[in-house]
């Protein structure tokens, strides 16, 4: 019965982690550019009591054997980078990537981070920055006297200056993508950093070479589907209850054995 106790305990721990991930998904259902996560599980090692193919006579052998599994463990928590819904804001500094790609932002320590959150602002120097004040990389600076800002699908940023009939180009927004975006490290604040698993960033122009295009005045919502997460939550809860019942049942069986009298 001890084996059953430990096996069921691994199931409870696994489903607790699953519920933690689901809770984080639901907590960020309204977070701009948020990407949901999914837990992948795998079974643990097996205790082999009788090997498959064990001879039972000179002419016969065991066809299946006896293996007892020892539980489950989390194998990975994977980010799902599917496109979220897009909604219009009318703000000229709000950008959405329609397709593949990430914005680049420069952190205070000089590290380049990546984000799908296109809700940019202007800082005191006129630079386009994130909500935490991290500037776009390469930097885009908007002149203080600019009357309007236009950002094309290919990332070209132009402004209308007073007294001029032709728009003035002030920079180009570049995108990056990764061979394995699921390998990116989440550091919070809607930011990711590259790792050995993600591969090196591939820099490109929006709308070319497989990169998505930019749309001005729009934002991307979270790709979390509430109904899907609720179903997963119910499934995780029931699985947790079943494993807890297995622990209780194993304990009751041990109690019966301990109380046996001759």
Model description:
- There is one protein chain.
- The protein is α+β, with helices and mostly antiparallel strands and 262 residues long.
- The chain folds into two domains: 2-81 and 224-258, no CATH class; 86-220, no CATH class.
- The protein is built from two helices and 19 strands.
- The protein has helices at 2-27, 226-258; strands spanning 37-43, 46-50, 66-69, 72-79, 86-88, 95-98, 102-106, 112-115, 121-122, 128-129, 148-151, 156-160, 168-172, 175-177, 185-188, 191-193, 202-204, 213-216, 218-220.
- Helix 1 (2-27) packs antiparallel against helix 2 (226-258).
- The longest helix has 33 residues, at 226-258.
- The mean pLDDT is 94.
- It is found in: Bacterial flagellum basal body.
- Keywords: Bacterial flagellum, Cell projection, Cilium, Flagellum.
Instruction: Name the structural class.
Output: alpha+beta
Task: Name the beta content range.
Answer: 25-35%
What is the spatial order of strands in the main beta sheet? 8-7-14-17
Low-pLDDT segments: none
Shape: elongated
Chain-averaged pLDDT: 94
SS elements, strand count: 19
- Overall tally of structural domains: 2
Distance between the termini: 21 Å
Protein name: Flagellar basal-body rod protein FlgG
Main location: other
Family: Belongs to the flagella basal body rod proteins family.
Domain Flagellar basal body rod protein N-terminal: 7-35
């Amino acid at each position: 019965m001890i084996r059953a106790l430990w096996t069921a305990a691994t199931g409870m721990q696994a489903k607790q982690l699953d519920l933690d991930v689901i809770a984080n998904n639901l907590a960020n259902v309204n977070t701009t550019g948020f990407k949901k996560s999914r837990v992948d599980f795998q079974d643990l090692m097996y205790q082999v009591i009788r090997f498959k193919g064990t001879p039972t006579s000179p002419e016969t052998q065991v066809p299946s054997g006896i293996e007892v599994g020892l539980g489950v463990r989390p194998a990975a928590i994977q980010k799902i980078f599917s496109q979220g819904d897009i909604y219009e804001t009318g703000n000229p500094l709000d950008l959405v990537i329609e397709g593949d790609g990430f914005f680049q932002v420069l952190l205070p320590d000089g590290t380049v981070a990546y984000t799908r959150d296109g809700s940019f602002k202007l800082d005191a120097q006129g630079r386009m920055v994130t909500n935490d004040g991290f500037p776009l990389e390469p930097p885009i600076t908007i002149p203080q006297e600019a009357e309007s800002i236009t950002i094309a699908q290919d990332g070209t940023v132009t402004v209308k200056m007073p007294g001029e009939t032709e728009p003035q180009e002030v920079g180009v927004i570049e995108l990056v993508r990764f061979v394995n975006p699921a390998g990116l490290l989440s550091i919070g604040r809607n930011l990711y950093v590259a790792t050995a698993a993600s591969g090196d960033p591939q820099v490109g122009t929006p709308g070319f070479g497989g990169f998505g295009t930019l749309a001005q005045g729009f934002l991307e919502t979270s790709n979390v589907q509430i109904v899907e997460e609720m179903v997963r939550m119910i499934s995780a809860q029931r699985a947790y209850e079943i494993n807890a019942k297995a622990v209780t049942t194993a304990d009751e069986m041990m109690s019966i054995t301990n109380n046996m009298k001759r």
